[in-house]
Amino acid sequence: MSGKKLVASLAIIAVSIAAVNITPARAQTLTDGPQLARAKICMGCHQVDSRRVGPPFVAVADRYKAGGQPMVEYLANSIRHGGRGRWGAVPMPAQPQVTEEEATALAAWILSLASPAK
Ligand code: HEC
């Protein structure tokens, strides 16, 4: 991540914490999955390929990949609203700082992490 982008991400975090809302123009500067996941603090609880507080994103992708395109919407909804009981005892809190657009981008990225068919 370039210094400029990092500064932009930090600014967005600051704005979203302050307002629990970010403008679409700012959201569009964060289009890439890993960057968005870091900016939205997903990586505080998740890792791509190992368990942290939440399930590894690769495991999420493997569980839902067979569902195809509708799973993008399903996961985007899970990301925004959180949930419990699907992966263990610890619930995921709702993520109101994530817009619908961002949640869709994150869901698509997570699904793209599925391991190759065995
Ligand atoms: C406070 C910790 C925490 C944060 C922050 C967090 N998650 Fe989670 N996440 C969890 C836990 C715990 C679960 C498992 C919930 C369950 O068992 O249903 C989970 C589950 C998920 C799932 C699987 C949902 C399903 O339907 O199976 C996805 C996808 C996900 N998280 C993505 C994200 C993204 C993207 C972000 C950032 C916007 C994020 N998470 C932020 C803890 C967190």
UniProtKB/TrEMBL annotation:
Post-translational modification: Binds 1 heme c group covalently per subunit.
The keyword Heme appears for this protein: yes
Leader sequence residues: 1-27
Residue ranges of domain Cytochrome c in the record: 28-114
Gene Ontology molecular-function annotations: electron transfer activity; heme binding; iron ion binding
Keyword set includes Ribosomal protein: no
Keywords: Electron transport, Heme, Iron, Metal-binding, Signal, Transport
Sites where the protein binds heme c: 42, 46, 92
Name the record gives this protein: Putative cytochrome c, class 1
Higher taxonomy: Bacteria, Pseudomonadati, Pseudomonadota, Betaproteobacteria, Burkholderiales
